[in-house]
Structures are given as C-alpha cells and as structure tokens.
Design brief:
two-stranded antiparallel ribbon; 297 residues
Length: 297
C-alpha cells in the first residue's frame, strides 16, 4: 500500500487537535499553510504541511503566539520544537512524531523518537503516558478514515516489539506461592497490546504468569488448570464476544473454568460495558479500565 501524502482539513484536525476553523484562520491571517485546491475549491495538504502544523501546535500550546511563529522559517520552527523537547517534559511533540512516523511508515523516526524519550522516561512512563493515548487516538483516526488499517497495523506492531523487548528483560524468577495469573483473549479477539502490557506489569511484581494471547477457546483454559493451582484469569474484550453474547460467555466461564475456590476472572474493555452486573457471577470482576485492574492486582 502506498503512503498517504494528501490530507483534508478534517484529517489535519483529527491528527493535530487544531480545529479546522482555526486552521483556516491561520491560513488566511498568517499565510501559515499553503494548501492545494481542487477545481471545486476543496483544500488538500501534503505531508510537509501536516508536519508544520504539528510543530506549530506544539509551540502555540507552549505560549508562543501564532503571529510570531508565522514569521519563522520552517527550519526555525522545527529547531525550536526540538529544543523544547530537551527541556520540557510534556509529551505532545513526541505524540506528533509517532503519528508522523505512522503516516509515513517511518520506522527510523519511530525508533529515534522512542530512544529520545528513554533518556528521560522509563518504559512504563512511555507506555502509560504516550502509547496508551496514541492507541486510543489511532482508534479515532481509523473510525474517521484519517488512516487505514495498514497505518494501524504498522504502529501497533512497532509498539508491540518494544513491549516484547521489555517483557523479556523482566522475565525471571517468579513466586508461584502467590498464585498464577493466566492471561488470554476470547475466541476471535486479536487486540492483545493491552493484555501484553498487563503481563509486563505482573512480571514486574514477580507473579507467575501464563500468557496465552489471542483467540483462546474456553476449553483450552481447562488444559492450563490441569497443571497449575490458585489461578486468576485476566482478559480483555473489545470486539469479542459480541455485546449480546457477553453475559452468556461469562456464565460459561464461571461454570466450566472457575470451579475451584478462590479462582477469579478479571476483565475490562469496550464489550464489558453492557454486562448485566446484577447477574454477574461472584467470581468475575469487571474493571473500568486497565489502570483500575492493575491497582487491584
């Protein structure tokens, strides 16, 4: 698939957070961007325009007036953003760099941005402060057709690689006396980055973990029970099971899998929002988000 090189003003709004109305004012008043126009007078913007807008929004949010920014050259704008990234702990410019890397399928830019962040932040801070927000933004960008599945897959794979590297670093001695955590996604569920991060956090606490990953049939969980005791199951529902099947799925898990005293299932995710709490089995807990689940465990 080719790189997306032309963007609508709505795309720019979705990617930068700057309202389309504001972008038009900046164009008209300060000649900040120079879009191409179709025969029907529809604006389109190239990658250079997008990058400039991202940089301008960073400087503007840090107190520099747009009228002053407009007098700077593109190189001076980029230079000031880089200087700002050295002395400022805010994450906006890093977020913009990751988005630009995604749009241009630029792994070198992704790695350079990540390595720059590592000089100041821990991996946990990067994942929780940047990657989690980036993944949420990507979901919105995909729904609004600003990006394609190819963009989403590209950036998700790079984040997954960093996560796997850090998981490998903390794998080692675990304390099975505290019980065993089994992490899995239901059948047909493939969005596993959130689950992988929970795996990382549990390993940091030296818990024994069995990571089963994507698309696991319920009957496969019974195989794990033959080997380990005192198990706590963790899962994440985004697309599967479907909303109208979640209650039945949880009853099945409870009756077939959570049969020993003290066994529990902890879940979170979009498809848990419609669960009938009043009929929820006592050995299943629903969490509002990943942060709440991590606090509990």
């Amino acid at each position: 698939m080719g790189i997306k090189t032309n963007f609508s003003i709505k795309d720019l709004e979705n990617l930068s957070g700057v309202k389309a109305h504001t972008i038009r004012i900046w164009e008209k008043r300060y000649d900040l961007l120079k879009p191409e126009r179709s025969e029907t007078n529809i604006r389109t913007y190239n990658l250079n325009s997008l990058q400039k807008l991202l940089n301008v929004s960073v400087l503007n949010e840090h107190g520099m007036k747009v009228s002053k920014i407009a007098k700077l050259s593109d190189d001076d704008i980029s230079s000031q953003v880089k200087e700002l990234s050295i002395v400022d702990d805010s994450s906006q410019h890093f977020m913009h760099s990751f988005k630009l890397a995604m749009l241009t399928f630029d792994q070198e830019l992704f790695d350079a941005t990540y390595n720059t962040m590592l000089k100041t932040f821990s991996f946990r801070e990067i994942f929780q402060g940047i990657f989690m927000q980036l993944l949420q933004d990507i979901g919105v960008l995909w729904v609004t057709n600003t990006i394609t599945p190819a963009h989403e897959h590209f950036i998700s794979t790079l984040i997954q690689q960093k996560l796997q590297i850090n998981i490998e670093k903390v794998q080692g001695t675990s304390d099975a006396s505290q019980g065993t955590f089994v992490l899995f996604l239901p059948l047909n569920e493939i969005h596993d980055l959130g689950l992988m991060y929970i795996h990382y956090e549990l390993l940091l606490k030296s818990y024994k973990c069995i990571y089963l990953g994507q698309s696991v049939p319920i009957e496969n969980l019974l195989e794990v029970k033959k080997v380990f005791d005192k198990m706590t199951f963790i899962s994440y529902f985004t697309v599967s099971p479907p909303n109208d099947s979640v209650d039945q799925y949880l009853k099945e898990i409870s009756s077939l899998v959570l049969t020993d005293k003290g066994e529990e299932l902890h879940i979170f995710g979009r498809n848990t929002k419609e669960v009938n709490i009043s009929s929820l089995p006592s050995n299943i807990r629903i969490h509002e988000n990943m942060e709440e689940l991590l606090q509990f465990v």
